[in-house]
Amino acid sequence: MNTTTIKPENWRKNFYLFLIGQLLTGVTSMIVQYAIIWYLTLESGEESVLAIATLVGMLPMAILSPLVGPFIDRINKKFLLIFYDAIVAVIALGLFIYGINHDVYPLWMVFITIGIRAVAQTAQMPTVQSIMPTMVPKHEITRVNGQFGMIQSLVFIVSPGIGAFMVAAFPIHWVILLDVIGFILGAGMLLLVKIPEVSTQGEKIAVFRDAKEGFNILRDNKPMWKMTLIGALFMLLFMPAMSLYPLVTTKYFGGTIVHAGWVEVLYAAAMLVGSFAVGIFGKVKDRMPWIIMAYLVVGLTIGGSGFLPGNMTGFWIFLVLNVLAGVVGQIFNTMNMALTQQSFEPQYLGRVMGIVSALMSFAGPIGLIFAAPVADSIGVQNMLIIAGFGGILSAFLLYFTPSVRNYDKFLQKKLAEKTK
């Protein structure tokens, strides 16, 4: 079976229909996600509860990511995306029914909900990432990743505020029902989209053999392998601080849940600016300096936040530093994803992305295990310093590894030779 293609004049319409569908389902899903975070923050306000919730949300990605790749490469991707959203919708419907008869959700039920949503997300993101290179011309891949990042940023901008408002205004079970609405809207839009097939679609699935093959394909590309390991190191040091962000605002700076929402919204708005820049001006010849710069700036801004005074003056500076981190962080995300998508053939991309997700995600839970006790011991603000050190260290490792620093130049030359 050969990879089917979209006619050049039709790819934009098809791709933007796909983006709109992802926006519709993404907004409702993320509103529910933030609503759950606000709910936990209001109900407990403890470092351990937020750290456990983040851990539960990340573990499925760390454990299951290598196993979903073979399914992504061999099963109809449109069916997979609808199936993921359907699982979340069914769980939401069950929680809604429970919430009608109970005033409060027990923590164990909230954690299970977070875990199931994480399982669906674990499979969904690599599926979307493997679809995009098949829907657009190769020379447009960086720009469309920027545009997809703009969609994600819009989701992150509107979701925290709406989630916080809805938790305050409505019982939590009515907010959770948005997942059902998102499924209906997203699935309906997806039915209008043409997603090209890849040559491996329909072949027999051998999960562990295929996962091992994806691992070997990634490892054989030495620069991408080194970049992935450095990214995992960054996540190990960075994620514990991110899981405690609401408490950094409320416990250290003395702000409120509303102030915590401002951090989320402005960070997402900054991500939108970064995505917009890549989406418009994304045809750079060498993306590695941008990726290295992004690590360094994120390290300096987030790490520097840990030295701010614990008052509202410090909070406003913290807000500004997060805006800067959001801009460069999204530049990193879009360029790094485009680099990965161009580095591997489409029929193997699901398996490779599964391995990349697993390695990047597995480091986070390891760090989160120590997040609450370390934060209790040294203070949540010092977790920001550790996170900043992770960004600076990663930038230096990338820069002083020549095969990685020069990788995009090599890749673009290789791709140019293929098109001759």
UniProtKB/TrEMBL annotation:
Residues 14-405 form the Major facilitator superfamily (MFS) profile domain. It is a multi-pass membrane protein. The chain crosses the membrane at residues 15-37, 49-72, 79-99, 105-123, 144-166, 172-193, 227-248, 260-281, 288-308, 314-332, 352-372, 378-400. It comes from the Bacteria. Its main location: membrane. The keyword Cell membrane applies. The keyword RNA-binding does not apply. This is MFS transporter. SUPFAM superfamilies: MFS general substrate transporter (SSF103473). It is found in: Cell membrane. Keywords: Cell membrane, Membrane, Transmembrane, Transmembrane helix, Transport. Gene3D superfamilies: MFS general substrate transporter like domains. InterPro entries: Drug_antiport (IPR004751), MFS (IPR011701), MFS_dom (IPR020846), MFS_trans_sf (IPR036259).
